C-alpha cells in the first residue's frame, strides 16, 4: 500500500496556509517509524501505556470501546491525515482501543518530535490544536446523532461526514469515494442493529440518495442528502482562517 505523507498537510491546509519549511516538517513526522497493520488488528489497546502518537497514512481505522460481554461501540472513524490522541502522554494508560478496519499504515511519532516541531514553527501549534478541537467537535456531533436523529438521519449524516472528510484530504473522485465499512461497523457507530442499518441503507438507495456497492459510495446529489440528514458541515471546521498570533504555542508544547 503506497504511503500518503501529505494527507496531514492537506488536512491542515483547511485551517491555514503552510510554508515550505512547515510542510517539510510535517512530511518528516509522517516519515517516522512506519508500521503496517492488518484489517481487524489493533493499533493500540485499552489499558496500554500511550507512548506514541499515531498518524494514519493510509487506510481506515476506528476508535472503540468493548463491554465485558463483547459488545463494541465505535467512537470515531480515523482516516488518512488523522492523528490519534495527540496529547495522550498526559495519561498513564489508554481508556479506549484503536483498531484497523482495512489494512492501515501509520507513522509512530514520539511526543518529543511533535514538541520540537511546534517549538520551531509556532503556527503548527495552532494547527494541531485545530486538529484536536475538530476531533472533539465530531465527537459532540456523534452524540447528537445517536441521541436525537432518526436512523435514516443518523446514517445519512455519517455518510455526509465521511465524504466531506475524505474530500478535504483529496480522497474523493467526483461524487464517489472508497467505502470499506460493513453494516456491523455502521451499526457500531450509530447505535443501531445491523438489521436496522440494512433496512435504512435500502431506504437511502430507494430514495436515490446513495449508490453503494463494491466498497464504493456514490452520493449523486450531496445537497439533497445533506438536507434529508440534517447535515451542516460547520462542525468539521474545514474552511477556517487562522486567528490570533503565535503567542499561545507554549500552551500546546506543555502537553505535546
From TrEMBL:
One annotated GO molecular function: DNA binding
One annotated GO biological process: regulation of DNA-templated transcription
UniProt keyword annotations, A-Z: DNA-binding, Transcription, Transcription regulation
Keyword match S-adenosyl-L-methionine: no
SUPFAM superfamilies: cAMP-binding domain-like, Winged helix' DNA-binding domain
Annotated ranges, domain HTH crp-type: 149-223
Keyword Transcription: yes
Domain of life from the UniProt record: Bacteria
Domain Cyclic nucleotide-binding, first and last residues per copy: 14-82
Record-linked CDD domains: CAP_ED
Protein name: Crp/Fnr family transcriptional regulator
Organism: Sphingomonas gilva
